Here is the input.
Amino acid sequence: MKSNESKINNDFNKMLNTDQIQKEEDTPQKLFKEYKRFYETESFLEAIEMLTQIINKGFPAAEFEMGKHHYFGSEQLGIAKDYLRAFDYFSKAAFLGHSGALYYLGIMYLKGLGVALDVNQALHNLNMAATQGEIEALDALGKIYQFGYSDILPDYKKAESYYKNAINLGNPPSMLNLALLLENQLRFEEAYELIIESAKHGFVGAIQYGLSTYK
Here is the structure.
């Protein structure tokens, strides 16, 4: 009996030690929070060093963050705008399932930034991002079908559907975009209600449009 008790105690001690080790380890999530803290406090040298360290651990949010820095350029971090490198980082993050990276890949394919223009691939990536609830992707798809793009003809029903999905996820700019679409279809009462709702959510574009249009 004592032998069994001793074995049980040893097993639980091993579990305890393993749990302590896991807690003490610097997980990618913890390191990413540290990177954010460095960046927000303008400790940019520490921020870029930390971000590079996390990327080596294969953390998709870090790949995405570095992709954005190369997409827009970051003077603070000493990173020049580089669409090729941005595309590479976004591709890695998207492979790991990051919806924001899928959105940016879609935009890059759509505009031919850092990659050959490919509208079909753009739609593929944007739809994958939209399926994961990426608001910007839903809004972008709404605009594509509202105005048409390249060989894609306008499709108001599709545009309205994408905008509504974005609105359901809480995106005030999509309310204004849908309102403009409805105005083109002479659905003025519905459009007005959306503009008011968007303005109530504090979207400046809706407030400015309302003031200039409804006098």
